Amino acid sequence: MVEKVTFRVFRGEPDADGDPFGKMVDYEVELDEGMVVLDVIHRIQAEHAPDLSCRWNCKAGKCGSCSAEVNGKARLMCMTRMEDILEETPEKEPVLVKPMQAFPLTKDLVTDTSWAYKTDKRIEPINGPEEPDWEFHQEEADRLQEFRSCIECMLCVNTCHVLREHQMFDEFAGPRFFVRLAGLEMHPLDTESRIPEIKDDFGIGYCNITRCCTEVCPAGIQITDNAIIPLKERVVTDYYDPLVNPIKAALNITSGVVSGVLSPFTDEFAPSGKDPGNLEKAQNAVEGERARAEEARKMDAQRADRARKRFRSKL
Ligand code: SF4
Ligand code: SF4
Ligand code: FES
């Protein structure tokens, strides 16, 4: 008997406000041995819905085009075997296929990932010395090889809660670009330092090392352990390590509250007569910090609201 499978696929386009508008549609197709999810989508296009949009190129896990969410997990459709999908799908239940939810919808399973190209352009490219020293350790070359195996599928970005839930696309470069930044920062011939940008413009502090990005990476890159954590360490070394830069570290660690005691460059928080601990200014600073935290909470709630609105499917 021929085995059949039901795929429940998102069909839709953005509405006038750019929000996804569509519905999940069921298609039943026959399965052949060895099929992957992308084969089933192609069969649906051939037999039921020629206008179903999906993006793909290589069908070999190399171009990073066919990213989607299958049964709620971000994966490459061309590298996801149907036998594995059938094993994980409850009996008589359809296989769910949706576009990546973190990015704006273009049509059906296709999303607009142009944010990635814009972010890439913000990164300072490699800058080698005039006369490079071509001798470097094999370990240094091997370390970069892992980062260079990225196929730019954006599955990690789609999974990262900072981007998916909180929509911080302006403030946070995301796991894919921390991989790229790590590849540049650890390059044995590169002379540039991108640490200030990694700290401030690319917002590495927002990453709380949940490792969700690493779990979905089809290239097997240890994004968190080998790219993000070493970059965080470099930020800490440059900005907060008292052995490397005592004054800068003191100023940063104390966030200005007691920096007058430690820094010869400002009298903003200097001890003053009856108020040697300068309590009033410290209290003002704490109040200011509370107000900033409150403001951050409000912005967070607004972002979450925007994210919900943006990705709610109007069924
Ligand atoms: S480890 Fe960091 S970058 Fe990766 S998913 Fe978690 S928060 Fe995002
Ligand atoms: S790091 Fe991995 S998951 Fe992220 S874009 Fe590159 S290959 Fe895809
Ligand atoms: S089609 Fe190229 S990675 Fe899937």
Molecular structure report:
- The structure is a single chain.
- By secondary structure, this protein is α+β, with helices and mostly antiparallel strands.
- The chain folds into two domains: 4-111, Roll (Ubiquitin-like (UB roll)), CATH 3.10.20; 114-294, Fumarate Reductase Iron-sulfur Protein, Chain B, domain 2 (Orthogonal Bundle).
- It has helices at 37-47, 82-88, 114-121, 138-148, 155-159, 161-164, 174-185, 195-199, 212-216, 223-240, 246-254, 259-262, 279-311; strands spanning 4-14, 20-30, 67-70, 73-76, 95-98, 105-107, 110-111.
- The strands form two sheets. The chain has a five-stranded mixed beta sheet with strand order 2-1-5-3-4.
- Helix 4 packs antiparallel against helix 7 and helix 7 crosses helix 10 (223-240).
- The structure holds iron/sulfur cluster (2 copies) and FE2/S2 (inorganic) cluster.
- FE2/S2 (inorganic) cluster is lined by residues 56-59, 61-66, 76, 78.
In one word, what is the shape? globular
Structural class: alpha+beta
Bound molecules: iron/sulfur cluster, FE2/S2 (inorganic) cluster
Number of domains: 2
Approximately what portion of the residues adopt beta-strand conformation?
Answer: 5-15%
Name of the CATH superfamily of the largest domain: Alpha-helical ferredoxin
Main pleated sheet: 5 strands, mixed
The top-level CATH class of the largest domain is Mainly Alpha
Strand order of the largest sheet: 2-1-5-3-4
